[in-house]
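Dear all,

This email documents one entry for the complex benchmark we are building for the journal club exercise. For each entry we list the sequence lines for every component of the assembly. Then comes the predicted three-dimensional structure of the complex as a token string, followed by one or two observations. Please use this as the template for your own entries, and keep the labels exactly as they appear.
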Amino acid sequence: MVLFVAEHSNGNLRKSALELATAAKALASQLGGDAVGVVLGTNVSGVAEELAGYVQKVVTLEDTALAEVRAEPYAAAVTSLAQESGAKAVLVSASRSGLSYSPRVAVRLDAPLLEDVTSLEVQDGQVIATRFSYLSRVTETVKALATPVVISVKPNIFPVAESGAGGSVETKSASISEQDERVKIGEKAAAKQGRVALEEASIIVTGGRGVGGPEGFDTMVEPLADTLNAGVGSTRAVVDAGWRPYAEQVGQTGKTVAPDVYVALGVSGAVQHLSGMNRSKLIVAVNKDPDAPIFKVADYGIVGDVNTVVPAFKEAVQSLD
Amino acid sequence: MKIISVIKQVPDAEARIRATPDGIDLEGATFVIDGMDEYGVEQALRIRESGEDAEIIALALGPKRFEEAIRTALAMGADRAIHLETDEALDPISQAKVLAGIIKEESPDLVFVGGKEADWDSAALGPAVAEALGWPHSDWTTALELSGTEAKVTHDSDDGNETLTLPLPAVFTTQQGLNEPRYPTLPNIMKAKRKELKKLSLEDVGGASAKTQVLKQEIQTKARLNKVVEGDAAEAAKELARLLHEEAKAI
């Protein structure tokens, strides 16, 4: 049996949860047993019912300790459920929180960790995954040498599951100690409301130094992102200059993304930035320098001034049927 | 106070790497201390400079060539170093257990680990070390304030950032934004040569075995269209929108 932790936000499943369902069901069919969706939190019955539309079995673990996403309570809850159920694999999304608590689960279970995987298969009962390494330049194939296996799955790689499962929901209690609650969360600062999270975005519009300044984001990057219903990314140069927050940074020291479309505006294409986005399915670049390295990795490019090209492009997109 | 900064040595971001049937060939690559780990070393130094009486130790697990990166940490200002020298390919979970054993013996108050390691592309080491120690952790830390037996941090979360309060001892993984790492000065580089670099082997710490095995490594650069759309701003923009919609079916 394979467990997968379905992430949710504001009462709805995240897209990554549906991708994880696909990965979990495929893995379960090869390892044997069912894929069981796990929902952690408080007041999650609605989310659990939604998940039951995609997978036959859903388990909820409700506890005040899980009200907010924290590494130790989540690790504790997932570990106890994995042990109790004898799961052969535990899948989480490779989100910030998933990457934070899954190694803790692996250590608690004394299990191998397959991290940020892009594919999964089973050979002779052993789980084999592919993932990126060396700043996303290399694809490596890794085998887990024992079960159970803890696996974090890269967002935007697996397709979302199809609905129509008509599954059932079971509630269980979580086994969380007082010590697991020792880290307290204070203030939270959310990314701009309505803006899709970078790691989940199908389309990302990134601004580099070439957009000229923070106003360039207001007048060009954000409006285009709004039109495309895209996430907004930034390069290290832009963040270093104080124009945008670190949370938006894409690259070696920022986020690694693999959206369907990556639009790079005024981005030169330094190796460190490329490592964070070179796995995007399609790359579009606008830069006034024809020799900018970004054009080497772009599928489509315009050599021109972002100040004239971007507004025109936004309008052209809006005029599409 | 005692602070341990876990560091590793990785190929330079611009390094040419080649794939052979036996794996990645790093022959001729330049190696550097992982940039992410530098923020950890720097943070330890700043804590000391802010008035804490702190001993700072650099801890590394890896082959002999890691010595250069360890000397960099010492040259930045770490007091001494421990090098668990091994050529074994150990995954982050296996490494965490070994490192935790050494860290437990030193009994520090804070442990810094780079947020993501540039060769494995892994963010697992910090959280795994914390769990192996039985300590709390903060990952992707961008601000850190010590207050008695607690640390208050700002760190990246799923949807933005949040502040956390953690009881010490604790593990913090580090990234850009936490601080600006210093360049070692020449006098400090010279001093670093005389600082203690203690060597340990896997045998000394009870051995370790990998939990995963890399079967294959391939360099795959995705073939790109490299299509430059011609025309003035308005024309090119319109054509680009059309291509993305009709040809690529991307929007």
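Observations: The longest strand of chain B covers residues 137-147. Chain B has two domains: 2-205, 221-251.
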